[in-house]
Amino acid sequence: MLWPFELHRFYHRRNDIHARFGGQQQGGISTPADTPGIFIFTGHGAGHVGHQDAFEADGSFRYTGQGQLGDMRMISGNRAIRDHVQNGKDLLLFQQTKKGGPVRFEGLYVCGGWEIEQQPDMNGQPRQAIVFTLVPQSQLSIEAEDLATKAPTDLPLAELRKRAFQAALAPTAASPRVALANVRARSKAVRDYVLARARGSCENCRSAAPFLTATGQPCLEAHHIHKLSDGGPDHPASVAALCPNCHREAHFGVGQVLLNDQLLQHAQSLEKY
């Protein structure tokens, strides 16, 4: 899915989001059944139910989960956020700045973990709240570029595959700092496996990598199929190893939709997903 939303642009929630993609039109977490995304809404009005959402200095976002009365449970929308990677769903964050106003698109995020905090419910009673640490995918794409300068692991392909699939499992409870580190580590695990899986050849054009990197490895790039950015600990069944030319075509080519569909089918066939 190539999402039509531009970063920091305002949209009408009902007309621009739900009319096109479905999902619940009320509440902070919308989970349309037939769309590869989960819409998260924050901002005006969150405080009246005790929610304490906040952007952190490191770029991550602290998002209080679903539930207005009593202790929160890892069900429904909360579970959807936790499991979004293994379920092939993007997290799209929108912020409302005034009551009844439009929502501003804040970008694509990845769930790195969560904590249990005591917060008041809508009646002012103390309760155990689930607070997720969401990491922007744009931050992870920078991390991926840094990883490209480092020598990859020399572990056997089977071990790399095992680690990649473990990485795609739902995150666990973690402090914000640990959650950020976990997301980056999982992103590296998926990337290392997919590049090794390609065995030196582009998974689209099947040609050998155009050159070797300074570390002596084939120059191939991990492409997160149907995502706007190439960040995030995606599932190995929806990531392809591409040569630089095919990678650009997958993002900007006139036939990018068809190309990405073909890449997804190929990756899923390799992983029997």
TrEMBL record:
Residue intervals of the HNH domain: 202-251
InterPro entries: HNH (IPR002711), HNH_nuc (IPR003615), SRA_ScoMcrA (IPR058712)
Species annotation: Parasaccharibacter apium
Pfam families to which the protein is assigned, alphabetical: HNH (PF01844), SRA_ScoMcrA (PF26348)
CDD domains for this protein: HNHc
Name of protein: HNH endonuclease
Signal peptide region: none
Gene Ontology MF, one: endonuclease activity
Keyword flag Membrane: no
Classification lineage: Bacteria, Pseudomonadati, Pseudomonadota, Alphaproteobacteria, Acetobacterales
Sequence ranges assigned to domain ScoMcrA-like SRA in this UniProt record: 11-136
